[in-house]
Specification:
Number of helices: 4
CATH architecture of the largest domain: Beta Barrel
Order of helices and strands: HHHEEEEEEEEEEEEEEEEEEEHE
Radius of gyration: 29 Å
CATH superfamily of the largest domain: Porin
Strand content: over 45%
CATH topology of the largest domain: Porin
Strand order of the largest sheet: 1-2-3-4-5-7-8-9-10-14-15-16-17-18-19-20
Structural class: mainly beta
Helix content: 10-25%
Largest sheet: 16 strands, antiparallel, barrel
CATH class of the largest domain: Mainly Beta
Length: 455
């Protein structure tokens, strides 16, 4: 080949000294040229092998990436997490039996689909990937369903501010959702999630970074119904998160969400966003307990919700070996049954995590975490169900406040031991009668231990 001959000639010229060579150096130069010819031959063979592999796999990654029959092994990654917990509480507590259970277990598959995909000289996107999450256990309940399942197109137009996800993903609201799914192991606590919003839904998400990473945004448009591939009323849900990192030690974000009509005359509403372990739904659904409002019993509300609105803000202070997270927001649940079933909610959180070696170097890598959080109407006349596991209390909670202390000890990079004690306080609305409801709302303290692994 002309190119290969030219390469050999060039290498031979590089082997010649600028001055005339002496006769006794001729053999040495010839040996160098022979060695260079051998190296060029090896390179030529490598090129031939790669071209043959590409021809054998013409359906390989478009726009770049590695081809070849074995390339999938280089482009697919398997990971997961599993948490085994012992939880014990009082007689009327959610964890009153004191049992060991699989608390959270997930499997993840990530695939690199394409890189540097172009249309002519224009970069369509820098890379494309597939993310899949198999949600096996969550809060001790067997799920066996899909968490994340989306195609991710990054660097659209060769920019940092345009990235697109298509499929099922975590709704980008606030900071709480970042601790679910593949990042579950980063939560310093064991049980009872923080109250700010989170959950998965199907749709599209557009996100990106601006100002050299100092600012970011995430916008989502999803179907707005909690069930997968189920949209009985055609309502949509939109969310927008704006974040800023003005300093390395400070992260700020503000988020908003609005959903359309959820549920129908025959199908109870079940939203596609959670507040802690509470889902906005048809008033009275999921509980047989008598509901009270304004001091008197009321019947269950209609199946349909006219909409949900949530607005909140977060601040995270990342100081040396210390992390402080503050969160506050409000939610409005509009029922088709009118003001009797409409609810205005408030959520709040203050969480501090400190590395114990600040007290004594011998305590590393132990950490200590404290969290105070609450979710409620904080209205003595109007209640809701703020934890689906407390169905015996029903829609009679005006507040669910939790104060927790946790210790964690990472063992290597992939395992953590945790212990937690929590004091839980349920405040009931005015006028509740019935010892069963009152007993279920009492004695909410619990203790837990957990071993968690991830890979």
């Amino acid at each position: 080949m002309r190119i290969r001959s030219a390469a050999v000639a060039a290498l031979a010229m590089l082997a010649l000294p600028p001055a005339a060579a002496r006769a006794d150096d001729a053999d040495a130069r010839q040996q160098e040229i022979d060695q260079l010819r051998q190296e060029v031959g090896k390179l030529e063979q490598r090129i031939d092998d790669l071209e043959a592999a590409k021809a054998a796999n013409p359906g390989g990654s478009a726009g770049g990436g590695t081809g070849g029959p074995a390339s999938w092994a280089e482009r697919v990654r398997l990971s997961g997490s599993a948490n085994l917990a012992y939880l014990d509480g009082g007689e009327y507590n959610t964890f009153n039996h004191g049992s060991v259970k699989l608390y959270d277990t997930r499997i993840f598959i990530d695939a690199d689909l394409a890189r540097d995909t172009r249309i002519g000289d224009f970069t369509a996107f820098r890379d494309a990937g597939l993310a899949f999450e198999w949600n096996i256990y969550r809060v001790g309940y067997f799920q066996n369903n899909v968490g994340d399942l989306y195609v991710d197109l990054r660097g659209m137009g060769d920019t940092d501010w345009a990235n697109l996800q298509l499929g099922r993903f975590q709704i980008p609201f606030g900071e709480n959702y970042l601790r679910f799914g593949r990042s579950y192991y980063t939560d310093p606590f064991i049980a009872l999630s923080a109250p700010p919003p989170w959950f998965w839904d199907e749709g599209v998400k557009l996100w990106g970074k601006l100002l050299e990473g100092k600012a970011s945004y995430a916008f989502s448009w999803t179907d707005g119904d909690g069930a997968i591939n189920n949209l009985p009323n055609g309502g949509q849900q939109v969310s927008l998160k704006l974040a800023a990192d003005p300093f390395e030690w400070l992260h700020l974000s503000v988020s908003g969400l609005r959903s359309g009509t959820i549920g129908s005359d025959t199908t109870p509403a079940f939203a596609a966003v959670w507040l802690g372990e509470m889902i906005p739904r048809a008033f009275g659904a999921g509980s047989t307990a008598q509901s009270f409002a304004n001091g008197v019993p009321i019947p269950p509300g209609p199946n349909k919700l006219n909409g949900i609105s949530i607005l909140g803000g977060d601040a995270i202070f990342k100081l040396p070996d210390t992390r402080l997270w503050l969160s506050y927001g409000g939610a409005r649940i509009d029922s088709s049954g009118g003001s009797t079933y409409d609810r205005d909610l408030i959520y709040w959180l203050a969480e501090l995590v400190v590395q114990a070696h600040l007290v004594a170097p011998q305590l590393a890598p132990l950490y200590v975490a404290a969290r105070a959080s609450g979710l409620g109407t904080y209205d003595a006349n109007r209640g809701y169900l703020f934890d689906f596991r407390d169905s015996a209390v029903g829609y009679n909670m005006r507040a669910l406040n939790v104060y927790a202390l946790a210790l964690g000890y990472p063992i290597g990079d992939f395992m953590t031991l945790k212990a937690q004690y929590a004091f839980q306080r349920i405040a009931l609305v005015h006028g509740v009668i019935g010892e069963k409801i009152k007993d279920a709302a009492s004695n909410g303290n619990f203790f837990g231990m957990e071993v968690g692994v991830h890979f």
